[in-house]
Structures are given as C-alpha cells and as structure tokens.
Amino acid sequence: MMLPLKKQNKAVDFSTALSDVMDFESASSATVPSGHYNIRSPILGKAVLCMVAGHLRVQNGYWQMILSYKDSTGKRRTKSVTTHLKEKGNKRRAEAMLLDLRRAFTKERQNALQHGPMFSDFMRDWLAQIRPTVAPTTFASYCRVVERSIIPYFEERQIALQTLTTGDITNYYDWLLQKGLSPTSILRHHANIHTALEKAVALDLIEANPARQASKPRRADFLPQTYSAEEASQLLNLLHGQTLELPVALALVFGLRRSEVLGLRWEALDLDRRLLSVRCAVTQTSLHGKSKVHSREVLKRKASYRTLPIPENILPLLHRYQRESGWLCLNENGVPFRPDQLSRRFQSFLQKNNLRKIRFHDLRHSCAGILISSGVPLLEVQQWLGHSTYQTTADLYVHLDFSTKLKSSETINTILEKE
C-alpha cells in the first residue's frame, strides 16, 4: 500500500514499514500508555483504536518517523521509518508523512486485532518462556533462528497465530531453500516452529499444530571430513612445542569435542593410573551482539560423562605441560583458550602449513575414523566418543567400517565356491 504525499521527495511504502511494527494488544484492554487506547464497542463487538503515538527526530541530517507501541506480549517497542527528507525546510512535510503513517498503522492494527496475536509476537514470547529451561548455547542458537529469520519473515506478512496454516509454514521453508540454506539448517527452523506451536496447542491458543504436516526438506546425508592416521601424525609433528599442540592432541587421541577439550582441568587427570575423566565443558554464546564463555559441570547427556585410559605415547606430552591444578589448554599468555579463538588459531595453522582444511570438530571425527580403520568395533567407538546411542555412531561412521565389507565379501566368496 503506497500513500504518496504531494510535494514529498519520495513515496514511503507504509505496508513495509507497518509490517515490522504491528501491535495486537488484547482488545479487552481499557488503556495503554503512550497514546494507545482500546475501547470495546458493545454494539459492534470490535475494538476501536485511537492512533498510535509517534514523533519526529533528525538523524544524519534527515527526518525520521518514530512509532511507539506495545506488541501482543505487552513489551514496549519502537520503530523508525525514514522520510528521505532533509532537515532544512521539510518539517511540515515530515509531519504530514508521520500523520499518514500513524493512520495507516492504526488501520492495519484494527484489521489484525480481530485475529488475535501475531505469530511473530507469539514466537518472541515463546523464546522468553524457554530461556530458563535450556542451556545458554541452545538458547543462543534458538535466538539466531527465531529473531533473525522466523520473526522477520512472518511479521512482514502479518500472519496471526490463529490463522497460520500449513501452507504458510511450507512457503517459509521454500523461501529458505531459495535463499540457499541447507536442508539441515531448515530442519532447525522447523524444530523451533514445531515446538513453539506445540506449546500453543497445549495452551489452547490453537486447536492443532499446522507445522505437523508442513512439507520440509529431507535431511542431507552427512559425511564427516577426517584425517587419516598419516595426516594426523604429520599435523602433530608440525605442532610440536606450540600452544595448539595439547588441545589438538587431546581432540585427536580421545575424540573429544571442543567444549570437552577446553573443559579439562588437571584435577581430571590421574597420570599415575593413566586415566582421564570428562566431567566439564566450556562453551561460548553470542547473543544480541554480546559474546560470553560458559563453563558447566553438567553435560547434556549421561554418555558424555566418561573415564578413558590414557595411551602411553601421549604421556610425555601431558607430563611436559603438567601443572598441579587449573585448565589444561592455555594460550601463550597463560590464559585459557576461548572456543572461537581455538578454532581460528587452528584454521590459521592449517592454512599456514598447507594442510588440508578441516574444522576443529573434525579432529573428533578423525579419531573415530582411525579407530574404525584399525578394526575397533563401532560399539567401542561409541563408548570412546561418548555418543548417547549406538545408532548415532553407526549413522556417522558406518561407511568407514571396511571390516564389515570384508566379512561380507568373504561370505559371498564362500557361496560362490560351493557352486
């Protein structure tokens, strides 16, 4: 909907502007601060809204329109919309544009109010509710998906929770595919939407979950990148004496996750009995522009807690770095590695030494690959890596288990001999 004004330099697409600022408060609310008033008419049974509050400001020499409103969760929000008008000599034009924007905004709110809260506002509320129940890293990943993609998409289309359809959700997945997201990434979006809508069903906000029947992409098969035993040996030889040597060796030898490597303290090692205990993890989250490192004693899965025997050949390396207490993996300044710092340093080392590029987490996959290629059964690999189920290990690494293919070949060969 374009509402051009006479003599203005550029028409403003108010539909686009309004899609980001829709406010669907409860129609039974009598008064809302800052210029919002909801009055239920006993005759029409519909909410009659006074215009939303708004004001002008100057930024970088141009007039901007500011709307102030509350979303359906009751949270105060503001939205700025540029007028494309320079400050000098254009105040009256800007005021006229602001008045048109406020009128259009109020009209859109009136229409949408009949359908209850927006799906985008419900997703905001859902994020706030689950925050105390999930790990910081999990919540940060949910925020990236919900705040950066799901909310903007559905807010722009002004889809209410009660009118959300399976087709709307499928269209969103198709839109993500067109943007170039992988099927695995899209399934993460689906998981958030499905879980949130299950909550809406439980709260009797909707009768059924429209995400259940949404057409979603098939999960792509994951083939981990691994180093061979020869490549692993070359990597460790090149790292000798450098600060990356210990964390890389721990990931390669014990198949540890990055969080587990950085969560190791010397108190978790018994070098006399040659035992290493995995009991702690160090993770990092980036939320709303702020990065934070978390150390947690409670791991996600029971299988992640494990005690592993220390191979004899890595003992000299551990003795070389041994201290009485504290974190194992420190940088050259004696400070524990941050997760992102460790990954960046690892990538830089590979590039500098012309080694095949893999992720730090691929060192864990490399450990599994070396074990399997040496004939270690998948069940033992599962226990070494700390996978929660045998199926997880099989799904990731069964293609590497050449010993089973040899047995199959020998069995077929026996059948042929009998013929």
Task: Give the tags.
45% helix; elongated; 419 residues; three-stranded antiparallel sheet; 15 helices
Task: Compute the number of strand runs.
Answer: 10
How many helices does DSSP assign?
Answer: 15
Query: What number is the mean pLDDT?
Result: 81
Q: Strand share of the residues?
A: 5-15%
Q: How would you describe the overall organization of this protein?
A:
This protein has 419 residues and is of the alpha+beta class. The protein is built from 15 helices and ten strands. The chain has helices at 14-19, 91-113, 119-130, 136-156, 166-179, 183-202, 229-239, 245-254, 258-262, 315-321, 339-352, 362-373, 378-385, 390-397, 402-418, and strands at 38-40, 47-49, 53-59, 62-70, 76-86, 269-270, 275-278, 281-287, 290-296, 306-309. The chain has a three-stranded antiparallel β-sheet with strand order 3-4-5, with helices on one face. Strands 6-7-10 form a three-stranded antiparallel β-sheet, with no helix packed on it. A hairpin with a 6-residue loop joins β1 and β2 (47-49). The radius of gyration is 29 Å and the shape is elongated. Residues 1-48 have low confidence and may be disordered.
